[in-house]
Specification:
Length: about 160
């Protein structure tokens, strides 16, 4: 049996993420005040914008929140195992199994890891920044995502 290389990454909090989320939200909130609307409508619009920014933060960022991703294991055949904050185990074989999709975006400044579980038709996205892991893990993760092939393609 051929052994497939894999990488286990433990995610940590990111300082860069504050800039990625707060800067556009604050700029949009300030820009709203240039509109010729009543002040109370602008206030409601700013509250809606703040709620949206918080929702996107919780949806995309791996955090210590319930349901947030704490660690992941990626293999060269694009098989992914996710470890959530509310999961008690850290055994590499016990993680939540998923498949990395081709919609994943690899950039120098960030990654959007698009994945789908084997039991769901809905895909999910994980937003990753370089300061969420060590520099070596960041490089290895990018190499595995760029050069990895799905199981059906490696025959």
């Amino acid at each position: 049996m051929k052994r497939v290389p894999r990488l286990h990454v433990v995610l940590r909090r990111s300082r860069q993420a504050v800039g990625w989320f707060a800067t556009p939200a604050v700029a949009t909130a300030l820009l709203l005040w240039t509109l010729p609307w009543p002040w109370w409508l602008l206030f409601i619009a700013d509250l809606a914008l703040a709620a949206w920014a918080c929702w996107m933060w919780r949806r995309l960022m791996p955090e210590g929140l319930p349901g947030g991703v704490e660690a992941l294991t990626l293999s060269a055949d694009r098989q992914l195992r996710l470890y959530f904050a509310d999961d008690a185990t850290d055994d590499p074989e016990e993680g939540f199994p998923a498949q990395v999709l081709d919609d994943t975006c690899l950039g120098d400044a960030f990654l959007t890891l698009v994945w789908r579980s084997e039991t769901s038709k809905r895909s999910r996205t994980l937003f990753l920044l370089p300061d969420m892991m060590t520099a070596n893990d960041w490089r290895c993760l990018r190499v595995l995502l760029r050069n990895g092939r799905a199981t059906a393609e490696t025959t």
